[in-house]
Amino acid sequence: MVHQFLDVRRGLFNSKHAKKTQPVAQRKVELEPVEVFGLYADFCTWNPELAERVTEEVLKRALKLIKFRIPHRNLILLLATATEYIEAALHYCEISGRTIPNGVYTPEILGWNVDLLQPLVDIGHDPNGPRHPSFGTPPYASAKILNVEPVRVDRWQTNLPPSEVIPDAIHDMESFYWVLLYLSMTHSGPGGVRREELVGELDADSSEAFELRTICHCFFDGPLEKIAWNKREAFRDYKSFEPLVLRHAHPYFEPLRPLLRRWWELLLLAYEFEGWEYHHNYGLVIKLLERALEEPENVESSDDEQHQQDAQQKRDDFFDKRIDSDTGIAPSQAQQVSALSSHDEHQVKTAFLGTPEAENPKLVSHVRDMASSPLSPTPIPNKSRRIDDSE
C-alpha cells in the first residue's frame, strides 16, 4: 500500500485534499540545446562587464531556460531575456550575501546546477468535474493561490507569462513570508504582545497608526477580494512594497527587516523567471534564515541609510498624511494606481469565492467609534478554515 502514496503531494493551503501528481523523477526537464557560439560573442560585446562576471556555462543555462519558457522567442529576444535573468540572479546573490568579490559566478554558485522541473499537473483531478473543497488561512495565503487572475512580476521587464498555478513549494514559501510579515507588523515583542497602535481607539492625530491599520486591513484583515488584489498589486508594483508595507514592521523586529527585504527579492526573482529559484526556493529560504540568525542585531546592510532615504521618498509620494479607509488610496492620489485599492473597482476574482470567509469577511471584532478608519486586527485562531470552492 505504501507505493500508492509515493506520488502524492500536498499544498499547504489545501492540506485536506492531496493532489496526485507525477513523481519528481518524471517531472525533470530535458532542456533543449541552444547554439551559443554566436550568441556568446554578442553577449560579450553588448555586456562586457557582465560577461566578465559569469562563465559561458551560465549563459548557456540561462538561454536554455528562456527557450524552455518561451520556445518561439527569436534569438535576439532570447539573448536579451537570458541576460536579464543573469543580471537578476547576480543581483539576488549580492543582496543575499553570496557575493564573490573579484570572482566569477558559475552555475554551482548560482544554484543552477540542479534539475528543473515541469509544472505540477493534478493527474488525479478531472478538470471538467467539481472542484474539491480547500482548507487554509486566506490572509496568509500566496497571492498566486488567492487570485484567479494571473499574478505578474515584471521587475526586469521580460514580459514572461506566468505559468498555470498549482500549489507547490514556492507558494508555501510565500505563505511563510506573509506570516512573518504579519507578526512583525502587529506585535511589539515576544509573548504575543500586540502593538499599542492596534489596540483600542485610534488617535485622530496619529497618521502613522492610521497607515499601519490601513495596511493590516488591506493585506490581512479586510475582505478576501481586497486582500487578493493588494497582494497581486504588491508584486506588480514591487517598488512600492517597502515604502508602503515593509516599513511598518515594529522596531522590535528591526533586525528582521533585511531578511524580509531579501525574501521579497527572492519571490520577485522566482515568480518572474520561474527558473531554478522557483523550483528550489526552499533551500534559498533556509540560507536566508541562517544568515539572519548569524547577523548581529545592530548591523544593517552597507547601503541601508540610502535605502531608507529612498524608501521614505517613495512613501511620501504615495501617502498624503491620511488614507481613505475604504479605497486605501490617499485622497491626492485617488486617480493613481497604488498598492492599496478597493476590490470593488477592479472586480477581483479570487480562488476562495463562495467560501464562508468571502461571505463574512469581517474576521475581527469591530473597533468602537472607528467608522472612518480601518479595523485593528486581532490574532487569527490557529485552526484551518474550510474553503468550499464553488466554481
TrEMBL record:
Region described as Disordered: 367-391
Name assigned to this protein: Fungal-type protein kinase domain-containing protein
